[in-house]
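Hey all, sorry for the wall of text incoming. These are the two entities for the joint prediction.
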Amino acid sequence: MLILETLQESWALQPALRHDMVHWRWFEPAFQAAVSQAAARHNVTVDVHGEVLCRAFFDWVHEVESQQHLEVVDPLDFRHAIAGLLLQHLFAAQFPSPRRAVLLTLQYDGAHGGTAGSLITSLVLTLLQALRLQAGAQTFTPDASLPQYWDSFLENAAQEPATAVCFLDRIAGLEPVWQTPTLLGERPAMRSAMVARTR
Amino acid sequence: MLTQTPVEHTMVQPTPPASPQQPALTAVELALKDGLRALEFNLRHGAHWLVDDVGPRLARQIDPVGIKGKREKLHVLVDSAAKGTLSTLETMQYRAASKAMADEPYRALDFELLPLAAYISSGDERNPSGLFAEVFYWLIRHALALGPDPGPGWLVRQLAVDEAYWQLQADHDGSATLGVPTAATDQQREQQHAWMCARLLHALIATRPVRDASMLPWTQTGHDPADTPAMLRVLLSVVLAVGSVTPASANTARAAACLHMGWQIAGARQAAFSGALARAGNDDAAALAEEFAFVLRHI
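and here's what came out:
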């Protein structure tokens, strides 16, 4: 339900995905395509606020760039980490301080439908799976206990977007770093890889 | 006490090479063009005022019975006279636009942008600033229309846009390599390009190409749109639109798409660009260039 398989496959086939994803000309249409597909799956229609998305994108790539040096340490974990940072910035754009425009505006066709948080998470999980495939790794199976903490995830990420990094790790079966979620060098895989490199 | 008398040097000192300057003829031509545009703008507004305000008021004065009264024909007569005036003016404006200025692609924003270097070093010896002044004039006009509130009739002065070109040349001390990439590596080229964008934004801000049409051109007081955040966004979006075009990105150089993208990014990063501009001293251009480099790297 959360992973958009068609997009995942087409993105995974793009050899320059890791490079392209931090470019606005790739990211914007990819985002639009993903949230539209996710919205159709969740019985909602969605409007994307272009400028809010643009701000979230550049804030995200700024953070990615500032920790870019860690990519060589553990390239696969770095992909998980930057997907987490993306989720964080998209949540921050969706649940901003009062009187600011929001990223997604949803219109419900029926009584039930997905939330903005589920659409954003769907996009990021799909992108992360594609990044793994493109790096030669297998896709992961989302944490089976996810339904038990799904509501908690959405609520916490809306209030404190940095927790989205931790929840994404948990969904992907990695150990979350609740104290310093946005410091990529503190991630267990990164720390282990750094220790191994110094030996 | 011996006093040293000043020695008079009769030898002619070598004069330094002159900084590139806006040719007087170009300045006159563009001033006239701007003047005609301002006249056209004011005539159009005047004609609308005639139709919307003066005509109905005149009809009411002549015939207080009103439009539902018996002498309705008089109202129709005044109304049609006013509308006729407007129609004549609009026809004249259309003819002037289509005959005197072959700028339809620019007017419709239906053209391909070139990389920034092509505008800065156009290679046209007769009119080196011509292409720059024309394209940037129209981009600024279109960028002004992208805002949610187009403002109280802002006019773009092509003469000031042209001045920005010459200021850019003078800043670079007349170097023949301005706009021509001389850097060896991609990173150096990126930095050089970012510096050029930063200088261009500075030049456009300094020459104030947009003015409030309700103010007389020679008055300096009143509301100056150049100082507003909205104007920074307009100029920034234009620089980003052109700055985003590289020789390798020819398939993404449609002016309308680039300007729309520039507008979005300018809005999203306006705080960062404002901060860079606000930094004092010689760091100004460095901080601005850094921000341009970051943004352009991720377009």
